[in-house]
Specification:
Layout: H1 2-17, H2 27-62, H3 67-70, H4 78-86, H5 96-111, H6 115-118, H7 122-129, H8 134-147, H9 151-165, H10 175-189, H11 191-201, H12 207-232
Helix pairs in contact: 2-5, 7-9
């Protein structure tokens, strides 16, 4: 019995990660869950507050409140270049992504006057940043606010807007950061040991789950091939 429970756990987690049906909890488990939700919300609020505070500081002290300069992808600001270089390293532990997000939210907060944008939380603002155009961002913020979309639904909404407009997502990433991301994916996939474990779990997996995973791996293989092709050009 114990072995079966352990073996089936990965499949249950995968379903949970993709928004499966709620798990039945006892009263005691529900109490712990409620506390975890409260603490998690406190953590989210604190992280967002610190991110916004840091972004405002960067805008003021590094860019002299010049929002145009702060949003310039080809910025020649020496301090900013050094911050970007150090991000993710021993002297600046935050990622380059978070560094860009903090600054860009602060800059757009100054430039977008609409209440819908101003009152939106940092997490959903981050998702709207990928739209690029400020009018579109404000319109999207109004839609997200009116329907009170969650982060997951906001992400899907933004993805739909980009696809319908034919506007690809603009990535801001350095060669070093991209290499680190590739290594992270490779390490997390785990190679041969994970492949052996997957083969052992195959019979236990739900057929739909197995097909979805196979489709994702095929898509990943295609994306890796595109990256290799781009590197070898």
């Amino acid at each position: 019995m114990g072995t079966n429970k352990i073996a089936s756990r990965p499949s249950a987690l995968v379903r949970a990660e993709h928004g499966g049906a709620p798990t039945h909890l006892t009263a005691a488990q529900r109490k712990v869950l409620d506390q975890a939700l409260r603490l998690g919300e406190d953590l989210r609020s604190e992280l967002e507050s610190k991110t916004l505070e840091y972004g405002r500081w960067l805008l003021e002290e590094v860019f002299g409140n010049d929002t145009r300069a702060a949003l310039d992808d080809k910025s020649k600001n020496a301090i900013w270049q050094e911050l970007v270089r150090r991000a993710g390293g021993p002297t600046l532990g935050i990622t380059q992504h978070l560094l860009y997000v903090a600054l860009r939210i602060a800059a757009h907060d100054r430039r977008i006057a609409g209440a819908a944008w101003r009152n939106l939380d940092a997490g959903r603002k981050e998702l709207l940043l990928t739209l690029g155009d400020e009018r579109t961002m404000l319109s999207a913020a109004q839609h997200v606010s009116e329907l009170n979309l969650s982060q997951k639904k906001t992400e899907a909404y933004v993805r739909g807007l980009r696809e319908s407009s034919g506007r690809p997502r603009h990535l801001r990433i350095t060669p070093g950061a991209l290499h680190a991301r590739i290594r992270s994916v490779r390490d997390r996939l785990g190679g041969a040991p994970v492949a052996r474990r997957l083969a052992a779990m195959r019979a236990e997996m739900d057929p739909n789950e197995r097909e979805a995973m196979a489709a994702d791996l095929v898509a990943l293989r295609s994306e890796v091939s595109q990256l290799i092709h781009a590197l070898e050009k």
